[in-house]
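Hi R.,

As promised, here are both runs. First protein below:
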Amino acid sequence: MAEGGRKVVIGVDESSFAEEAFNFYAENFLKEDDVIILVHTPERYNFVDANLGTQVDRPHVHRELLEEIKQKVETLEDKYSKKMEDCGIRHGKFVKKHGDAGEAIIAVAEKEKANLIVTGCRGMGLLRRTFLGSVSDYVMHHAHCPVLVCRK
């Protein structure tokens, strides 16, 4: 990837919130020489639950879940590669990380020395956000650079 102008990290997943954040950035802030780094953390499955609460090992269930995750990530990467191409983004990449989405976005932003982070916002209420956490809240409080949070 050629080193262009600003490095922009955008958190993406399968939600409409992530897509709207990408679109808002592309329509309002994108510069021709921006370098876009899309960060995705695949959905995590609890493989104990996948065994339906039994102690019997069911490797075929694990394989099916892992294949499903792999397929979803490939589909998402293809979708955003096309979106970048359609927007005229010449310098971009898709990064898959494991673990917590907020931590992954921050880690990539720090590693890439990002100038801006863009994330969507699900608009959870205070109680739900307190118990479940919020990726955008985490990113805002831990980022080393400006953060653009796009509300629906």
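And here is the second one, sequence first, then its structure tokens:
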Amino acid sequence: MGAAKWVGEAMGGCSGVLWSTGGVWGWRQRFLLFLVLVLPQMLLADTGFLESIEIQPDTTEAPSVDPKLVEAPENTMVVVGDPAILRCRAKGTPAPKLVWHAHRTGRVRTDPARGVAVTEEGLKFESVGKEDEDSYRCTARSSAGSQHSAWVELKVLGEY
């Protein structure tokens, strides 16, 4: 049997491998040991591969999708004093914001004093009056674009 010696730093930084010059460890065993333990460390250390492995968060943004109306308002007839809702829903990326316009008065905003609210469901009237009778449309807007609904009529029946 031959002498055994430690092989470490000279073989690519391995923490130590018992290397025999003969006997129990033949040349095949030494070669396999070299392939399994030493060579991968030498190759990876020289390329910097181990230092470059890093998990990065996904920073890609979802592609923009133009707003699309999935529920458009419809002509509605209501009796004075009754509640009414003109429904409008849209989808897109980024999520679109709904804006309402009245033909006579322009942009419609939430007005708690009059019982008018722009909500996710649509344009809500707690108690319609003759002054609410008008043509309305909703517009879905986002940074990707906009889409308008057709003008629809809110017809109010009855006396003031």
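A quick note on the second one: The CA atoms of residues 55 and 150 lie 49 Å apart. Let me know what you think.

Best,
J.
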